[in-house]
């Protein structure tokens, strides 16, 4: 069974930075497109950033230029560096492989990011 664990979320001031980390078992990270997803209160979970096995990245318009997704395949790790955080970035952030993201199962607990003054 897929077991993903996210960490690094916190309460931060607007303009602050965080680095989220994702690791897990049940998927081979180096073989998968990986994504970070954010779910704000009362909203659907949405793809924020993705990265291919070779390192090609894509970002949602709302966070372009502020967040960076990266990976260390040999360590089974994916990161999301979040800079210039805005209150609208407040959400629970999850990682998952893109191929499994349509399934309701296999998601981790997420990590809470709260941006507030």
Sheet with most strands: strand arrangement: 2-10-9-4-5-6
What is the 3D form?
globular
Helix content: under 10%
| N- to C-terminal distance | 40 Å
The mean pLDDT is 95
Q: How many strands appear in the DSSP assignment?
A: 10
SSE string, helices as H and strands as E = EEEEEEEEEE
Number of helices: 0
List low-pLDDT spans.
none
Describe this structure in words.
- The chain is mainly β.
- The chain is 0% helix and 46% strand.
- It is built from no helices and 10 strands.
- It has strands at residues 3-7, 11-12, 18-25, 34-39, 46-51, 57-59, 67-72, 77-82, 91-97, 111-115.
- The chain has a 6-stranded mixed beta sheet with strand order 2-10-9-4-5-6, with no helix packed on it. Strands 1-3-8-7 form a 4-stranded antiparallel beta sheet, with no helix packed on it.
- A hairpin with a 6-residue loop joins strand 4 (34-39) and strand 5 (46-51).
- It starts with a strand and ends with a strand.
- The model has no long low-confidence stretch (mean pLDDT 95).
